[in-house]
Backbone:
């Protein structure tokens, strides 16, 4: 993996684990966030809702076992709906294609972590990584998970 992608990969993992701006900031940035382990989900929900109310932002929160999930309710302007949908579908297709490419050399990619225009993933059986940045018609892809065989 190129050094600049390696650095971005590390930064995304770190941000995800540490959530520097807290869960509410994470919600605003990513559009969705789940309560951390060991935190009372009901208290967490109430806190997120109070902050959203103060900012006049619409959020929905749901309970998922011993966790809670908060998601931002966005209204997409009618003329942008199709473009957004097309974008989301293309993105999903690219990620699926990359997971297949990783599988061809033995890795198992079963989930992606999204960070704005970037997505990262680890192999479920070894430390191999995959990095993607969606910036132009052709996404930038990198990672040993795409080319090196899985030892796992
Ligand atoms: Zn692997």
Residues:
């Amino acid at each position: 993996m190129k050094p600049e992608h390696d650095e971005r990969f590390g930064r995304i993992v770190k941000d995800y684990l540490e959530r520097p701006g807290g869960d509410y900031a994470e919600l605003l940035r990513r559009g969705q966030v789940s309560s951390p382990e060991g935190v009372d989900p009901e208290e967490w929900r109430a806190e997120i809702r109070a902050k959203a109310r103060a900012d006049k932002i619409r959020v929905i929160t749901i309970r998922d076992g011993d966790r809670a999930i908060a998601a931002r309710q966005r209204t997409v302007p009618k003329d942008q709906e199709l473009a957004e949908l097309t974008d989301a579908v293309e993105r999903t297709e690219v990620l699926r294609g990359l997971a297949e490419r990783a599988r061809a050399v033995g890795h198992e990619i079963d989930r992606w972590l999204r960070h704005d225009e970037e997505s990262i993933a680890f192999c479920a059986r070894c430390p191999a990584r995959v990095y993607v940045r969606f910036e132009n018609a052709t996404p930038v892809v990198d990672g040993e998970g795409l080319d090196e065989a899985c030892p796992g």
About this structure: Residues 107, 123, 125-126, 128, 150, 152 surround zinc ion (CB under 6 Å). The first strand starts at residue 32 and ends at 34. The mean pLDDT is 90. The two ends are 19 Å apart (CA to CA).
